[in-house]
Amino acid sequence: MKYFFGILGMIVGFILVWKSGWFLANFGRVDFADKYLGTFGGTRMFYKLLGVLTILICLIWVTGTLDNIIMAVFGPMFSGFKK
Fold first, then answer.
1. Both ends of the chain: CA-CA distance in Å?
2. How far is it between the farthest Cα atoms of the chain?
3. Residue 75 burial (CB < 10 Å; 0-12/13-18/19+)?
4. pTM here?
């Protein structure tokens, strides 16, 4: 099931990158993206970055390294707790 949802997520990410103009036309502009990523085209870049990030996270999840990354980042915060 993990592989199915991982591949589905990668396909969604690819569609976000490929059809960012369609998402812009149907969902409109994202104000903070236009403010911080550029005045014109910031929203389109936001949709593309969101798609690439979705692809990367799904790829990392399918390969099984997401758990190791999460534990490396957040594990030291919970090292004082014992089971």
1. 29
2. 52
3. exposed
4. 0.80
